[in-house]
């Protein structure tokens, strides 16, 4: 089962830090943000990883290399212009799902302690989403969860963590180019084709300089030795 880390964003909200450093290489707790994803994917058994990039992407390749030092096999999808979440995944769909099986997708700009080994290896539908409590910047949440199924509406709503298992069937009818993932998920949810689970542990959308700095402080306080 293969995995993709989405790392092609421009990081506009993180400027001036991202004027010279791509967001996935910004450091928190003594290491680059993207390294946490790679290490946790490998620990969970997902060691074949593809990373898409655009802005300053050559730095990402130079830093991570082929992934050998992480115990991973890393390859890259170079996007001249960002293709958004859906377009970036669709571009490498044949690599992610060469035999039609499911694959893991992780947003590169989040931090979480969700145990990736818990992700399902088979899907009962077209996608499986990990949901978390709503942060201050998304108080209304994204989706509801009822008996293991994702619903568009509900009494209690949660935020999509950016961690998912997906099927190539989710992209049926799509064509090459830039497009978002969210409309595909909403359509599949409306058809009852998306399962989910709730994670009550650590999760941070590292979308601003302030959140990055707070996460760095939290990690250094928790692991003062850098391990």
Automatic annotation (TrEMBL):
PANTHER family for the chain: N-ACETYLMURAMATE ALPHA-1-PHOSPHATE URIDYLYLTRANSFERASE, NUCLEOTIDYL TRANSFERASE
Taxonomy of the source species: Bacteria, Pseudomonadati, Pseudomonadota, Gammaproteobacteria, Oceanospirillales
Q: Name one Pfam family in it.
A: NTP_transferase
Q: Do you know which InterPro entries this protein is assigned to?
A: GlmU-like (IPR050065), MurU (IPR054790), NTP_transferase_dom (IPR005835), Nucleotide-diphossugar_trans (IPR029044)
Domain named Nucleotidyl transferase: which ranges? 3-138
CDD domains the record matches? NTP_transferase_like_1 (cd06422)
Sorted alphabetically, which keywords does the UniProt record give?
Answer: Nucleotidyltransferase, Transferase
Q: Where is the signal peptide?
A: none
GO MF terms here are: nucleotidyltransferase activity
Name of the protein in question: Mannose-1-phosphate guanylyltransferase
């Amino acid at each position: 089962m293969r995995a993709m880390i989405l790392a092609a964003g421009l990081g506009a909200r993180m400027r001036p830090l991202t004027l010279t450093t791509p967001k996935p290489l910004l450091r928190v707790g003594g290491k680059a943000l993207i390294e946490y994803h790679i290490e946790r994917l490998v620990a969970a058994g997902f060691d074949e990883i593809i990373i898409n990039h655009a802005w300053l992407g050559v730095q990402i390749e130079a830093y991570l290399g082929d992934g050998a030092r992480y115990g991973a096999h890393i390859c890259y999808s170079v996007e001249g212009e960002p293709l958004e979440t859906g377009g970036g995944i669709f571009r490498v769909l044949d690599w992610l799902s060469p035999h039609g099986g499911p694959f893991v997708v992780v947003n590169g700009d989040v931090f979480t302690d969700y145990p990736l080994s818990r992700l399902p290896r088979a899907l009962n539908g077209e996608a499986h989403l990990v949901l978390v409590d709503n942060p201050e910047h998304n108080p209304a949440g994204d989706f509801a969860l009822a008996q293991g199924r994702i619903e568009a509406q509900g009494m209690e709503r949660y935020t999509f963590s950016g961690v998912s298992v997906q099927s190539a069937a989710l992209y049926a009818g799509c064509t090459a180019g830039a497009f978002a993932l969210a409309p595909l998920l909403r359509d599949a949810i409306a058809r009852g084709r998306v399962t989910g689970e709730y994670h009550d542990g650590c999760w941070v959308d590292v979308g601003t300089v302030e959140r990055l700095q707070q996460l760095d402080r939290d990690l250094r306080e928790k692991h003062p030795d850098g391990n």
